[in-house]
Write a structure and sequence with these properties.
By secondary structure, the protein is α+β, with helices and mostly antiparallel strands. It is built from 20 helices and 25 strands. The strands form six sheets. Strands 5-4-3-6-2-1-7-8 form an eight-stranded mixed sheet, with helices on one face.
């Protein structure tokens, strides 16, 4: 077979396989062009979630008529001009592949004006011009994409449902709005507005649009820097979290990126603060010199290479962890809306609250308000409700009594009261034990429920973990060796990992088909716990878990703290409670157990009186 040069339209169709694989890809490329054009307003209009039609309208610099067709040629771009430019890319686009790739598999109409008086349009089908002419157009560019994948039926066939495609586009646009809060974004689908950001450069307001009011009322600001990178952003406390990593948004120099290492660095900060398998809501901004970043990795431009990424990951983990460990992460049983927004009246004990007629009026009024709020407040979390266990929020839905929508005031809301961790728990008055599981404590006018097992688990975890900090490789021979039994399959795995086990200071010998004799152990293993520790360590290794000492010790500390703690349904006396409170005050993170469950829940006097109808 002879070698030939492929015609441009076929080369663009091949390129489209990498650049354009679904409606989201089209939206992403067009929106990035709009951002690069200096737009302050970007409107994305979809028909059938973009499967039928996608329109992106901006108020950017526009494209001159003489350059419009050039923009549809392969590798035509205004973003770079020399090879050196590749090493300091500040724009979102630069490859010159998007427009020709989109045009190759759809019908595209581009209308643009650089003056705001007159514009010009071109319509291309499968990359060929089929119509053109002058038109009225405000300054900016409008791109309409129809019949996507009409000439690549296999690609069209494998598109997701309209609901799935819409959720992906919405997720991306919210991330865009977070990366550029100075731009007003509007998204409509079938003429219905799904969200509309103000473009006022307010990150908190944009987060409220993306994640809802409850989330922004439970986030902390953080910032840090080293010699290479500066980071800042907002991250949730232990009150609100998700079952997926999708709401950890990483923005590097204004570009939303996908980097599993950086996402892991964020989630690592929450170890033992939120439950295992749950993830925070985080918006992480990273700023660096452009020469430290290589974005020319993949056509999607989501993946990047970073100079000294390890130091960046350490900076992220340490910065967020420092903020979390210096905040009162107390679970509070309260409405999502500030009590300042409630209409509040107090009634003496001997006064009847309301008449039956008045009660009926209040119920009707409340239901009407709830319906208004339900219709007006749209949150992206609605999309994730369709997926099992996708959103976990540890608060009840608010009963909104006033129709006025609460106003977010971040400068006030994020200056949260600090708690003196060295005396907070000891300052609480012990009232009694409920169900031999929960300790009733009073602090001022607030009531606290403390889970005695979770609290003791945290105390034991930090004590065991601290003892591991002095761990050495020294070991000693046991005067009386002990025997461990395993299954046949486990025994074979143990034999294959004998050297790894020995490197930790544990010397074992085969003793039959399923048993092993333990002859030597590390000196740091506590007396009386030799059998349990060694068994847990061996099981940890043979189950293909990471065997780094730090991770293994943390896992062991969690396991052993649970076994050595006070259980639920167990009576403890006042002196034991006093000792437990004292120990909690000495903990680094006393508000959660090692597995991320809360150790205490707070009830305010307002909430209690509201339950008893003393306030309405």
């Amino acid at each position: 077979m002879s070698i030939i040069k492929l015609p441009p339209h076929l080369a663009n169709m091949i390129a489209a396989g990498e650049v354009v694989d679904r409606p989201l890809s089209v939206v992403k490329e067009l929106v990035e062009n709009s951002i690069d054009a200096g737009s302050t307003s970007i409107k994305v209009q979809l028909v059938e979630s973009g499967i039928t039609k996608i329109t992106v309208i901006d108020n950017g610099s526009g494209i001159d008529q003489s350059e419009m067709l050039i923009a549809f040629q392969s590798h035509a771009t205004s973003k770079i001009k020399t090879a050196e430019d590749l090493f300091k890319i500040g724009s979102l686009g630069f490859r010159g592949e998007a427009l020709p790739s989109i045009a190759a598999v759809s019908v595209v109409t581009m209308t643009s004006s650089t003056t705001g008086n007159e514009g010009y349009f071109y319509t291309l089908k499968a990359g060929e011009v089929v119509d053109e002419g002058p038109t009225q157009m405000t300054k900016g560019t409008k791109v309409e994409v129809e019949k996507l994948f009409f000439n690549t039926p296999a690609r069209y066939k494998h598109l997701g449902s309209t609901y799935q495609e819409l959720s992906l586009i919405t997720d991306y646009l919210y991330k865009c709005a977070l990366s550029h809060p100075n731009i007003a974004f509007t998204l409509t689908n079938n003429d219905k507005i799904l969200f509309n950001t103000s473009g006022k450069n307010d990150i908190i307001e944009t987060m409220g649009e993306a994640f809802g009011l409850e989330t922004v009322n439970n986030v902390f600001y953080f910032e840090g820097k080293n010699s290479l990178y500066k980071i800042y952003g907002y991250t949730s406390n232990n009150q609100v979290f998700r079952s997926h990593k999708n709401n950890i948004t990483v923005i590097l120099n204004g570009r939303v990126i996908r980097n599993s290492g950086l996402i892991y660095a964020v989630s690592e900060s929450y170890k033992s603060i939120i439950p295992i398998g749950k993830y925070p809501i985080t918006v992480l901004y990273i700023e660096s010199d452009l020469t430290l970043v290589d974005v020319n990795i993949h056509p999607s431009k989501l993946e990047v290479r970073l100079t000294d990424e390890t130091t960046l990951k350490n900076l992220i983990t340490d910065t967020i962890k420092k903020v979390l460990y210096n905040r009162p992460l107390i679970e509070q049983r309260t409405e999502n809306v500030n009590q300042d927004y409630f209409r509040q009246e107090t009634f003496p004990d001997d006064v009847e609250l309301v008449s039956n007629e008045k009660e009926e009026e209040e119920i009707l009024y409340t239901e009407e308000v709830k319906e208004v709020v339900k219709q007006e407040e749209f949150s992206f979390s609605d999309f994730w409700d369709a997926y099992p266990d996708s959103t976990t929020v540890i608060k009840e839905e608010p009963i909104v009594i006033e129709p006025e929508k609460p106003v977010i005031e971040p400068k006030v809301k994020y200056e949260q009261t600090e708690i003196n961790k060295t005396s907070f728990f000891e300052s609480l008055d012990y009232l009694g034990q409920y169900n031999q599981t929960y300790l009733l404590m009073q602090g001022g006018t607030d009531l606290y429920l403390i889970d005695q097992h979770a609290a003791m688990e945290r105390v034991m975890y930090e004590k065991i973990r601290k003892s591991f900090s002095n761990v050495t490789n020294d070991f000693y021979d046991l005067l009386i060796p002990f025997q461990l039994e395993f299954s046949v399959s486990e025994a074979l795995l143990i034999i294959s990992k004998m050297d790894e086990i020995k490197s930790l200071g544990i010397v074992i010998e085969e003793f039959g088909n399923t048993a092993f004799i333990v002859r030597s152990i590390p000196i740091w293993i506590p007396n009386g716990l030799e059998n349990e520790f060694v068994s847990d360590i061996i099981n940890h290794i043979i189950n293909n878990r990471e065997t780094g000492k730090a991770k293994m010790y943390d896992s062991l500390a969690k396991s052993l703290s649970c076994k050595e703690s006070i259980k639920a349904n167990m009576h403890i006396d006042r002196e034991e409670v006093k000792k437990l409170m004292s120990d909690l005050d000495r903990c680094e993170m006393p508000y959660t157990c090692p597995h991320g469950r809360p150790t205490l829940v707070k009830f305010t006097l307002y909430e209690i009186e509201k339950m008893f109808k003393r306030v309405i």
